[in-house]
Design brief:
This protein is an alpha+beta fold and 407 residues long. The protein has helices at residues 2-18, 104-107, 220-237, 278-286, 292-299, 319-331, 349-369, 393-396; strands at residues 28-39, 53-64, 69-81, 90-103, 117-131, 140-154, 159-171, 191-206, 305-306, 337-343, 377-384, 401-406. The chain has two domains: 25-206, Porin, CATH 2.40.160.20; 245-406, 2-Layer Sandwich (60s Ribosomal Protein L30, Chain: A). 23% of the residues lie in helices and 33% in strands. An eight-stranded antiparallel β-barrel has the order 1-2-3-4-5-6-7-8. Strands 9-12-10-11 form a four-stranded mixed β-sheet. Strand 5 and strand 6 form a beta hairpin.
């Protein structure tokens, strides 16, 4: 059974690793910034601009399809003013752009030499509007072609300092940047205007993962280690401690003696329904001296009463063990019994001590209710049993129990 199941599970996990990358990084981010702009053409005679204008504001949102390719929507405002050589003017330019983004850092494998520096390339199209100038009788709507580079410096896993340089070529302009009419011949509308913008800002990512796609690097070694850990846990699950043919994680009675007849859940079979497991009944019938081997089986932990997590009531699967023990104690009135309660490692030690005591006390009450004299029984809470791996929920099933010592 183990040989058949493990290869199938291993194959499923290996296939899952190939898709793991898409789940380990955040895809959404927002950005904002401010800086300077510079326009070249068209400007009418008598109008000039400084080397730069200190009025550019940007904001946007970006979605990465994977670690290398994304899409961003940006909103920009540029204020243009004349210098001291120019006829005074002021024009506001508002633009909206949709651009594709290429993460050059991941494409060119910057991670081989830096973990904090990155470069994005972006290009796309947009629309804009010239307004705020008395010389523009109506708002001038324009189309834009955008191309640029964004440098990134990683401050934290979610916050990045950005520096962007973008060139915007505008077409279908009816007005020049100074607000006057475009000086080119009527009817010729090409890439009429050019505007350059340089900004500094912040990019903030959000999502449930530690890193944004800009910085995420798929580490196959980590995934292989994770796969090995999962396979190791699967192997632990498939262990069959009592050799009854039922893996421990499915075994409701994980300490049946070797050779005992069990059902599909590893429980002892009682074909004659007399409350005594068939293997124990055979042992009892073939021993002398009052069933010494049965006592040994009980005292050595082959017959236990199990509990669900954080529960002080026995599981349904333990009904057979309880019935067997009650029957044995009734048939051997000269015997006394000690009940030892245990809990797993999950939770506070003081609480688990109290839980182990309640488990032993509740089993004692069941025996008393079944007609076993209370004076024949003592209870002890043993607290935490740390003999199994705390990280394996299947192994912890075996230590949430009450064991018995017959005297």
């Amino acid at each position: 059974m183990k040989k058949a199941v493990l290869p199938l599970l291993l194959l499923c996990l290996a296939q899952g690793i190939s898709a793991q990358e898409a789940k380990d990084y955040n895809k959404w981010s927002v950005e904002f910034g401010g800086g300077i702009n510079k326009v070249s053409k068209p400007l009418n005679p008598g109008y000039h601009v400084d080397g730069y204008n200190l009025y550019t504001l940007t904001a946007g949102a970006r979605y990465m399809f994977n670690t290398k390719i994304g899409l961003k929507l940006d909103f920009d405002m540029h204020r243009l003013m004349g210098d001291n050589r120019s006829i005074p003017f002021q024009t506001n330019v508002y633009t909206v752009g949709l651009e594709g983004v290429a993460n050059l850092g991941r494409i060119l494998e910057f991670e081989s030499w830096t973990k904090r520096i990155n470069v994005l390339a972006h290009t796309g199209v947009g629309v804009g509007m010239l307004t705020g100038n008395d010389r523009i009788k109506e708002n001038d709507n324009i189309g834009n072609f955008l191309i640029g580079l964004t440098g990134e410096y990683k401050l934290t896993n979610r916050v990045t300092l950005t520096g962007d340089f973008t060139m915007m070529n505008s077409f279908a302009m009816q007005s020049s940047w100074d607000g006057g009419q475009v000086y080119q011949p009527a009817g010729t509308q090409g890439f009429d205007g050019t505007l350059y913008a340089a900004t500094i800002g912040l990019n903030i990512s959000f999502g449930k993962h530690a890193e944004h796609a800009d910085w995420y690097v798929y580490n196959g070694d980590d995934k292989i280690e994770d796969l090995e850990n999962r396979v190791s846990e699967l192997e632990t699950m498939m262990n069959d401690t009592d050799k009854d043919g039922v893996p421990d994680y499915l075994d409701a009675e994980p300490k049946t003696p070797s050779g005992a007849l069990v059902d599909s859940k590893g429980r002892n079979v009682d074909l004659n329904n007399n409350g005594i497991a068939d293997y124990a009944e055979v042992q009892q019938q073939t021993t002398t001296g009052g069933g010494t081997e049965v006592v040994d089986l009980i005292n050595e932990g082959y017959v236990n009463i199990y509990f669900d997590f954080n529960s002080d009531q026995p599981t349904q699967a333990s009904t057979g063990a309880i019935t067997f023990l009650i029957t044995y104690l009734k048939e051997h009135a000269d015997k006394s019994v000690e009940l030892f309660g245990y809990a797993d490692e999950i939770g506070d030690a003081k609480y688990n001590q109290e839980l182990s005591e309640r488990r032993a006390a509740n089993v004692k009450k069941i025996f008393v209710d079944a007609g076993i004299a209370e004076s024949r029984m003592t209870i002890t809470g043993k607290g935490i049993d740390n003999t199994v791996s705390k990280d394996s929920k299947y192994a912890r099933n075996t230590v949430r129990r009450v064991t018995l010592s017959i005297k």
